[in-house]
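Exercise 7.
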Amino acid sequence: MEETNKESTKDEIKYRGIRAMPFVIGNETFEKLGTIGSSSNLLVYLTSIFHLKTITATNIVNIFNGTCNFGTLLGAFLSDTYFGRYNILGFASVCSFLGMLVLTLTAAVSKFHPPECGNQETAPICVGPTTGQMTFLLGGFGLLVIGASGIRPCSLAFGADQFDPNTESGRRGVMSFFNWYYFTRTFAVMVSLTIIVYVQTNISWSLGLAIPTITMFLSCALFFVGTKIYVRFVPKGSPLSSVAQVLVAAFKKRHLQLPEQPCFSLFNYVPSNSLNSILPYTNQFRFLSKAAVKTPEDHINSSDGSAVDPWRLCSIQQVEEVKCLLRVMPIWVAGTIYYVSVVQSQNYVIFQALQSDNQLGHINFHIPPASFIVISMLSITIWLPIYDRVLLPWLRKFTGKEDGITLLQKMGIGIFLSIVTMIISGIVEDKRRTLAMTKPMLQMTQGKGAISSMSGLWLIPQMALSGLSEAFTLISENEFFYKQCPENMRSIAASFFFVGMAGSSYLSSFLTSVVHKTSNWLAEDLNKGKLDSFYYLIAALEILNLGYFLVCAKWYKYKGRAGDNKVSERTDQDEIVI
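Solution. The predicted structure, written as tokens, is:
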């Protein structure tokens, strides 16, 4: 029902579909241009303008990215339970704009950042930021965190809400929207990592941060202009309460025994307005099934057949929905560990590029260090149509499966490619450091050391492989969560991806700090450190992660439907070949 009229029925909803898309897609495009344009070059900004040490800047960026992603779980909860997607998106968009405005002021106003480094014959003297300057900067980061926590889990679902799911044109519109959504995201990333980063690095930080701030203002304006034609649904409560009820009821009945035929004997109730698929009983997590054991103390409502006390008696359907959620958790852990390699490769390739020869051929053009990350995006955009149009038809004929290879197989391939990426990154870094020590260029990087004569173009293979790895793992992980979680938990499932990225950022920050304190691998001057050894360490971590993932994939039971089997025993043994 619509937010403006709580008494309206489903038939009275006026879906605007395509008419709402210019506002939703425009909001998404400008929002991505703004947030990515501001955050993609933060490492360089913090080290060159605020004169922070490399390890400090890296940890700040990791924590910032991690908090943005982890906050999506709170944003999804508040949206689904209390405020609705429209209100959360509107509030979050304004917060993002204010955060970028603060970040722009730190560059434009001299009092908000440290003075430039003084010129000395031996080495430049760089003064760090004051407490007030850091507080103002971190305040801007806080506003950006609030904005990202609301926008990321809600924007895709809000756009899909504008189409009628009960009509063919509406379903086609949703598919078209998803395509445009990812297209505009990729476009925004490409523009941010090329044009905006170039302006920031070579022209002016003030102008380079003002551009994404203006685009975020346009994003807010477009979003609110379309207010009158949006479909806005009233929140119906969070599925997290259902999860809590099952856990509490199972704990209260932990001493009970399950009946011999639980699929026939357990309490079975499905609300008439439920949108979830009816799930078959499964033998995994049997202790949770005790929540559906009916005892003499349990009472049933005579009006609809539901439990009087849902914190003591839950339906087997409710229990199986929670089991679906728990079954994806081990896969989520593997995806979280995987993303550590992505975080570290994208962070340290910037520092590798800073101490490499970034001149493009014989022309007087130097590639901005942060723009090397765009190679991974190019790799994704080139690979996806090749896979969809060329490789997938062949795989369908070879495997006899409609999907060619399964989602878990794709994720396994992506994790394997991350191992190869880290090994190649280590080899390239060893070559870069050797040339920096034996054949350095005349220039010096401010606050670091000699620039290697190795061309920065040698960093392209590791970034291309990193993008290919992401295309296999992260996209498949998103689709996996969407398909395997119950329908009423898909908003929460959408936030799993970002929460996993948050965990990866925190884990990356912890790993970086430990390695920095126990070795000289991550020195300020890469020429004095051993970044290649750090890459090999991450490769070893991913090898262990691949083994863990294969075990989890073999154990995993796919979500079924009632009627497939009396007791679902379907596993992934025919999906992952070990």
